[in-house]
Design a protein that fits this description.
Subunit structure: Homodimer.
Number of helices: 3
Family: Belongs to the LuxS family.
Oligomer: single chain
Distance between the termini: 23 Å
Largest sheet: 4 strands, antiparallel
GO molecular function, one term: S-ribosylhomocysteine lyase activity
Organism: Candidatus Mediterraneibacter tabaqchaliae
Cofactor: Fe cation
Strand content: 15-25%
Order of helices and strands: EEHEEHH
Number of strands: 4
Radius of gyration: 15 Å
Helix content: 25-40%
Length: 159
């Protein structure tokens, strides 16, 4: 079998950032898949499932309610390796195009107070596996370390 594209990226040189993972034509539009890489693969510890799950709930809720992007969001969810998230948007985008959106989303997560949306037995298949304080910490860290002054090396995959 052929390697899928995401397995051809040099994960040893990959740093936290926002990357276009792929673009797929579907009917008359393009679906852009973003790699929202929060930790340095194979270098930093991966995120635990509870905070990943919390970020997923908060991020998906934020995105699907965003005035500009809500009708373009196809999917937001975690990578299996627990180093980041995938965001799929309808439209042909570059990484830099969504930096403002990601700043808004991670600021929302970093400042979130209250009940996590969808964190009930009725709404979620594993509602007890949540960690809001750690999700907020990771969101603040990503904002400060990556999004506030994002560089080109954090917007394009390493060659």
């Amino acid at each position: 079998m052929n390697k899928i594209t995401s397995f051809t990226i040099d994960h040893i040189r990959l740093v936290p950032g926002i990357y276009v993972s792929r673009k797929d034509p579907v009917s008359d539009t393009v679906i852009t898949t973003f790699d929202i890489r929060m930790t340095s693969p194979n270098d930093e510890p991966v995120m635990n499932t509870a905070e990943v799950h919390t970020i997923e709930h908060l991020g998906a809720t934020f995105l699907r309610n965003h005035e500009t992007y809500k009708d373009r969001v196809i999917y937001f969810g975690p990578m299996g390796c627990r180093t980041g998230f995938y965001l799929l948007l309808a439209g042909d985008y570059a990484s830099a195009d969504i930096v403002p959106l990601m700043k808004e989303m991670f600021a929302f997560i970093a400042g979130f107070e209250g009940e996590i949306p969808g964190a009930s037995a009725r709404d979620c298949g594993n509602y007890l596996d949540m960690n809001l304080p750690m999700a907020k910490y990771l969101a603040k860290k990503f904002l400060a370390d990556v999004l506030t002054d994002i560089q080109d090396s954090q917007l394009y995959y390493p060659e």
